[in-house]
Each structure stands twice: as C-alpha cells, then as structure tokens.
Amino acid sequence: MQLKSTPQVATALAAAACSLLGLPASAQDAGTPDNWQFDTALLYYGESDRVTAVEGVFGATKDFGDEHIFSGKLVIDGLTGASATGAVAQPYAQTFTRPSGNGQYVIGAGETPLDDTFRDTRVQLNGQWTQPVWQDYRVSGGLHVSKEYDYLSLALNGSLARDFNQKNTTMSLGLSYAFDSIDPEGGRPVAFASMPLRDDFSSDDAYQAAFDATRLAGSDDKNTLDLVLGLTQVINRRTIMQFNYGLSVVDGYLTDPFKMLSRVDSDGITQDLLYENRPDSRTKHNFYWQTKYAMDSAVADISYRFATDDWDIQSHTLDSRLKFKLSDTTYIQPHVRFYQQSAAEFYQPFLMQGEPLPTYASADYRIGEMTAYTVGLKYGILLKGGQELAFRLEYYQQDPKNNGVEAPGILQEMDLYPSVKAVIAQVSYRF
Questions:
Q1: What's the CA gap between 419 and 397, in Å, rounded?
Q2: Cα(18)–Cα(58) distance, rounded to whole angstroms?
Q3: Is 391:369 a contact under the CB 8 Å cutoff?
Q4: CA atoms within 13 A on the CB side of 178
Q5: May I ask which residue range the UniProt record assigns to the signal sequence (predicted)?
C-alpha cells in the first residue's frame, strides 16, 4: 500500500472542498445563536489513468451567543490509482520493485512509469473555537488530527484579530504548529540507493538482504511552523479587500520515499534507478491579495498569490469567480484559475551516468516547472430556512515543462513531461 507518493493530494482536496463549501471561518458566517449550521459535501477527483479520490466532508458550526463560536469538521477520503514515480520512459518494457519490497510491476515500452500501489484512506478531524476577549479583539484556537496508513499529522493553531475604524478594518496574526510522523511501508529509502530487482538475485534471501540494505530503520518526522499576518479592509459598501503575508518554516523528513530518478547513459538508456533525496528544511513566503465586489445581481471574487521559497520555487496563482444571481433562489458561479511555477533548484528529470551524484535531486514533476489551469461552473439552489444545495463541475489540467535540460539519445523521442488531466465534481448541501 502506497500513501505518500502524492502527499499533497488529500490535503489539497480537503482544503478545496471546504472552501467551496463555505465552511465558516469567522463570526460573520456562524448563523444565528442557538442554531447549529451543517455543511456537507461529496467530492470526486479523477485524473486520466492516474489518481482517483472520493471525499466526504461534514462540518458543523454553532454560535453560543456573544460571538462565542465553535466549528468542527470531519473529512474522510479514499485515494487509489497510479502516480508517476519520477523514472523516465524507455522504448522497452521496464521492471520496478514495489515500495514494500514485495513483488514488482512492469511498465510498457514508451509509457510513463506509474506506480499503481497508490491507495489509502484518510480520516481528518478539526475543531475551532472563536470568541471576543476585549472590545474589538477576537481570539481563535483550534486542533487538527489527520491519520493515514503510514502518516500521522497533529496540529495546533491560534490567532488574534483586532477591529478598527468602526469594524471596517481588521488586522490579524495567526500561528500554527504541526507535527507529522512518517513511517512508509517498506521503510525510508537510503538517499540515492539503487533499486534492487528480484530477478538480479539467485534467492529470495539474497534479494531481501539487498532490499533491506537500501532502507533506514524506524519512522521519521517533520515540524512545520506557520505565521500569517492579515489585513482586511472595507473599501465601500460594495467592495472589500484582503491582504495576507504568510511565512512557513519546515524541518525534518521532506523526501518522498516513493520517488526515484533514472540514471541514463549518453544514449538515454536507463542504467540504474536511484531513490531521490531532498533537503531537510524549507522556508516559504507567500503574499496574497483578494477583492470581492458586489454588483446588483452578481458578486465578483478575484485573488492573486505569489509564493517563493529557499528551494528556488516561485509560483503565481490567479483565481477568479463570478457569482450570478439567476433568480431569488438560484445562482451560477463560473470559476477560472491559472497557476505557474518554476522548478526547484535540485529538480532533475534524470541523472547522467558518469557524473558525480548531487547532494539533492528529485524528478518529481510536482516540484518542476509547470503551468496549470482550472475552469468550471457551480450551480446553487437556495432552499427554505437558509438551506442550500449546490453542484460543481470543473476541469483541471497540469502541464509540466522542460526547465532547460537537454535530453540525450532516445529520450528525445520520449514524452518526459506528460500533462495531467482531471475532472472534479462536487455536490454540497448546507442546512
């Protein structure tokens, strides 16, 4: 069973589902005192010939009076399918050892190597409490627990917000700390160790000894500290604007234990398969701007995010939604999102035989140069008693790019940067 081949997938899906569900984040969203508000959703995410995810979200919020607000969320998702290993395609069939070391699989000639052991179930629980403490001040604190087959995440968060200018201006400071424990099936690979293949050994014992020599004993962990500074400003009766600065410092095990690199000769023929290695720290900065503008029969929502880190990845995200009122009880909301990022300084689509091994290297396309876009539409129906039923359908495409690496020999004929295409469908119900 493989879990962390795409560690961001489950988290990203949950965040996307909850934000589009409109799960409450502040006192203004909590509804009337003494009434519980529930948000539910079922989300499907399916990549073409790759990962498929089905996720259920249940959220509950209650204002106990005087803006003393509790919100909780339960997320359950299941992921299955195949994910790219980082190895390059070849004009002949290739054999790979499964991450557990038990068994192997074969990839056909000319095909992108995909590991079909990507599957797991994740359960996530969040709880948050918000309340005023002094005049014009609010505090909030929360807990997060997420458990997967070989991954445990625990997090704490807290924030302080201050209103100014008759509550037309709000400044906030938020901190969170997360501890993650990683214990991948088969163990953590030794950096740049060669993948052993059963066919190269005369006995099961000899193969097992070779496989064990490529693994580190025990689990590992990582720690993440996030800081967010925010400013929200009411511009006029139709316009509100938000600015955020975020800092994230991560230390610990950041290597993906299920990713590898192909080591090729001058003809582009694979000579060896090596497990990747990434730095054990990462510092990220991001700057976020969002504006909402209310028209007579529509609400425009546009945002931009710039992110940069000490891995040399820089990204730009432009996101826009326009919510049209069709009638007193129905609306549609088109959605367009564009994303672009540069490659990490240690990203390499392959390694060359005869050249010294670098300190760090990864062929994971997710940290390579890429562009991506999302287009979709949401249709909502407002029901009696503040209830709402909504349907969302979107198309997502991610296009990895060559960051200037010249492919040798036969690799010039291979598709080293295949696109990832996905369909996202969601049904949500608020009551």
A1: 7
A2: 9
A3: no
A4: 19
A5: 1-27
Q: Among candidates 139, 25, 12, 6, which has minimal Cα distance to 73?
A: 25
Residues ≥6 apart with Cβ < 8 Å to 9: 45, 51, 53, 79
Kindly report the pTM of this predicted structure.
Answer: 0.88
For the stretch 258-298, pLDDT in tens is: 999 999 999 999 999 999 999 999 999 999 999 999 999 99
Amino acid at 243: F
Q: How far apart are CA 284 and CA 306, in angstroms?
A: 11
The span from the CA of 116 to the CA of 79, in Å, is 11
> What's the mean pLDDT in 367-394?
96
| Interatomic CA distance for residues 114 and 85, integer angstroms | 6
Per DSSP, 116 falls in state T
CA distance 369 to 352: 20
Q: What is the DSSP letter of 361?
A: B
**With contact defined as beta carbons under 8 Å apart, do 241 and 232 qualify?**
yes
User: How far is 106 from 264, CA to CA, in rounded Å?
Assistant: 19
Closest by Cα among 180, 147, 152 to 252: 180
Using pLDDT thresholds of 50, 70 and 90, give the confidence band for residue 138.
Answer: very high
Which two tokens mark 114? 């995909």
* Sign of the four-CA dihedral 228, 316, 420, 194: negative
Pair of tokens at residue 147: 């458990």
C-beta atoms surrounding 242 within 10 Å: 16
d(CA 46, CA 251): 32
Where do the domains of the chain lie, and which CATH numbers do they carry?
88-114+124-378+396-417 (2.40.160)
Radius of gyration for the chain, computed over Cα atoms and rounded to the nearest angstrom: 24
Six token digits for residue 59: 């959220």
Read off the amino acid at residue 341.
Q
Report helix, strand or coil for 5: coil
In angstroms, the Cα distances linking 241 to 53, 287, 290 are 34, 14, 6
- Separation between Cα atoms, residue 84 and residue 50, nearest integer Å: 8
Q: Which helix (H) or strand (E) holds 252?
A: strand 239-252
Query: What whole-number distance in Å separates Cα of residue 395 and Cα of residue 48?
Result: 11
Instruction: Please give the Cα distance from 46 to 396 (Å, whole number).
Output: 10
Tokens in use for 274? Answer: 């090596």
Where do we find the tokens 């060359």? 352
Q: Say which residue the tokens 């990839």 belong to.
A: 107
The amino acid present at 169, given as its one-letter code, is T
The torsion angle over the Cα atoms of residues 182, 183, 185 and 191, rounded to 10 degrees, is 80
**pLDDT at residue 8 in the model:** 37
